[in-house]
Amino acid sequence: MSEQTMIIPTWDDVKIAHERIRPYIHETPVLTSRFINELTGAELFFKCENFQKAGAFKVRGACNAVFGLSEEQAAVGVATHSSGNHALSLSYAAGQRGIPVSVVMPRTAPQAKKDAVIGYGGKIVECEPSTSSREAVFAEMVAQSGADFIHPYNDPRVIAGQATCSRELLDQVDNLDAVIAPIGGGGMISGTCLTLSSIAPEVKIYAAEPLNADDAARSFRAGHIIADDAPRPLRMA
Question: Into which CATH architecture does domain 26-53+165-222 fall?
Answer without folding.
Answer: 3-Layer(aba) Sandwich (3.40)
